[in-house]
Amino acid sequence: MADPILLIGTGTSVGKTHVAERLLRALEGDGRRAYGYKPVESGVSATEATDAARLASASSFHVKHEPLRIVFRAPVSPHLAARAEGIEIDLDAIRGEIARLVTLVDALVVELPGGAFSPLTAEVLVAHFARSVTGARAVLVAPDRLGVLHDVGSAARACASVGLPLAGIVLNAPASPDDSTGRNAAELALVTRAPLLAELRRGPSDSPLEANDPARVLARALTR
């Protein structure tokens, strides 16, 4: 049993699912039974694969019983989607599911929705929930583009203010690179003391992992 790895973002649509997929495949390559879990997901289309399905496909371990998942169609913050549908997001149940899953695998990767300070409920933000998960290692995912230094610095300071330590940062290659892409990693020390764990490349999430692939570096950093 290993500590759960929680992926949180500097915002929404920063590539957490891609990072989770690559991390899961790297963990499998290292011979680990790894499972990807996304407990809450909004903006789910009837015609597109869910993030949860993508993580399950990238996992090297498959649970016998479908884990607890809370899914909303509306592409809005989970607390707004839950309010609109008259549903209460049971955070205790999600914590319990994480505690159960972590006993089954060598590595559990949990993708939390939205950004670090997106509301899960009217009272609890993502960072608050991450702090409450026993033994969790929180990883901040950010897109390697203009503005990322501000976003990482702000998110890291805000996480520290609520007592959530960061295991590190992953810079994810953006869909549209700009002049800062590839140059931000060297400047992160100006805005945070959290270590840079990896710079992930752009490309298909199921492409082969080379020996020096950043996803392998990330996997080993989080499981050593």
Give an overview of the whole structure.
The chain is an alpha/beta fold and 224 residues long. The chain has a single domain (5-223), classed as P-loop containing nucleotide triphosphate hydrolases (Rossmann fold). The chain contains seven helices and eight strands. β6 (137-143), α6 and β7 (166-172) form a beta-alpha-beta unit. The relative contact order is 0.20.
In CATH, what is the homologous superfamily?
A: P-loop containing nucleotide triphosphate hydrolases
**Could you name the CATH topology?**
Rossmann fold
Structural class computed from helices and strand pairing:
alpha/beta
Instruction: Supply the number of helical segments.
Output: 7
What is the typical, i.e. mean, pLDDT? 95
The succession of helices and strands, N to C, reads EHEEHEHHEHEHEEH
Counted up, domains total 1
Helices and strands, with pairings:
Elements: E1 5-9, H1 16-29, E2 34-37, E3 40-41, H2 51-58, E4 70-71, H3 78-85, H4 91-101, E5 107-115, H5 126-132, E6 137-143, H6 148-161, E7 166-172, E8 196-200, H7 214-223
Parallel strand pairs: 1-5, 1-6, 2-5, 3-4, 6-7, 7-8
Report a brief summary of the structure:
This protein has 224 residues and is of the alpha/beta class. It has a single domain (5-223), classed as 3-Layer(aba) Sandwich (Rossmann fold).
